[in-house]
Amino acid sequence: MDDSLEKKCLGGEGNDLARYFARAAVTHTPLSVSFELTHRCNFRCVHCYLGDQEAIHKHRHRELDTDTILGLLDEMVEAGTLFLTLTGGDPMLRPDFVKIYEHAVRAGLLVSVLCNGSLITNEIVRSFVRYPPRIVDITLYGATQNTFEAITQKDGSFAACLNSIERLRKANVRLHLKTVVMTLNYKEMPAMRAIAKDMELEFRHDCMLHPVVANSDNAGRTNGGGDILRLRIPPEWAVETDFEVKELARSLAELVKKLDGKKVSEELYQCQAGKISCHIDPYGIMQPCLITPSHSTIRAVDGIKAGWKKLYEAFSASSAVESFSCKLCEDKIICPACPGSFVLETGRPEQAAEYYCQYTALRREKMRSLSRKEVT
Ligand code: SF4
Ligand code: SF4
């Protein structure tokens, strides 16, 4: 990896990452790309947004081959991409993972890898040592074998995950842990935090579960949310969980002071998806982000630059919507929802899902009361 480039971009002396983002927005550059190398996974997580793994495995023959992927990585660099996230499914189910990973790093991309942690071979650890990733992100589903495997539905997955974490730590690979909070593991949050603390690893959580995303291996259908959303914790618990993290609580309390009276943007999409970032699925379809479907089928193999141009034009053209239910909401900036998640739940990008409104109202209340306490 070009170390000086990483320093320059990630907070090195005299530099400002925000400048890169601002410049990318002006030049319409796909600065950040997430790439699902496969939807296949060796786990069968109860909350998985990818849907039925048996059906997904049947689509294996449609996945992009190694040479095509390597070519796309080179094209990304040429198009101005700097940040690449390799994800899945579990990307390490592909026997060519190391080849793809090393090619990406050698090409100059700052690569993050998201995985379930159970498939990290010694060859992969050696590769991470040779070509350090920006970060390896592993999901910890619980603090005990019972809870972890009740979620992953895979015997031995807890031990395999902890074993990989230990080997990566010993090898000094940059590593973060995260969890998806749901009814099944909520009570183990303190214990999960303790595991991460003992290992001196950064740990973050996400309480927002999504229904199955529409993609081409489930014929573009979502599951409407029923089964997965039953695992969601109540909004009160989600807010409590957020505020148990002191640094997060502090920064939210700070944020609320800046928000009051601030004019909100009325745009449908407030994020960077389709503006400076995009997503590529295992079959080469380009979309604004993992959960937001594209308005038309855009194939990466027809050229990254051409695909990005089409995506950018289609996406920015769709950004102002009269009937957007969040249009004038002042809480938008502290709300984790986005039109992509609304499509999954309400079927329409402009129609908010109730859970997010409830969560965000409680969040603002808590932020306000914390901020008042600070003042008094
Ligand atoms: S580890 Fe991730 S991709 Fe695999 S089944 Fe679980 S949620 Fe889905
Ligand atoms: S989902 Fe609700 S809280 Fe969030 S931005 Fe929309 S209206 Fe506001």
UniProtKB/TrEMBL annotation:
<keyword id="KW-0479">Metal-binding</keyword>
<dbReference type="Pfam" id="PF04055">
    <property type="entry name" value="Radical_SAM"/>
</dbReference>
<dbReference type="InterPro" id="IPR058240">
    <property type="entry name" value="rSAM_sf"/>
</dbReference>
<dbReference type="GO" id="GO:0051539">
    <property type="term" value="F:4 iron, 4 sulfur cluster binding"/>
</dbReference>
<keyword id="KW-0949">S-adenosyl-L-methionine</keyword>
<keyword id="KW-0411">Iron-sulfur</keyword>
<dbReference type="InterPro" id="IPR050377">
    <property type="entry name" value="Radical_SAM_PqqE_MftC-like"/>
</dbReference>
<dbReference type="GO" id="GO:0046872">
    <property type="term" value="F:metal ion binding"/>
</dbReference>
<protein>
    <submittedName>
        <fullName>Radical SAM superfamily enzyme, MoaA/NifB/PqqE/SkfB family</fullName>
    </submittedName>
</protein>
<dbReference type="InterPro" id="IPR007197">
    <property type="entry name" value="rSAM"/>
</dbReference>
<dbReference type="InterPro" id="IPR013785">
    <property type="entry name" value="Aldolase_TIM"/>
</dbReference>
<dbReference type="GO" id="GO:0003824">
    <property type="term" value="F:catalytic activity"/>
</dbReference>
<keyword id="KW-0408">Iron</keyword>
<feature type="domain" description="Radical SAM core">
    <location>
        <begin position="27"/>
        <end position="244"/>
    </location>
</feature>
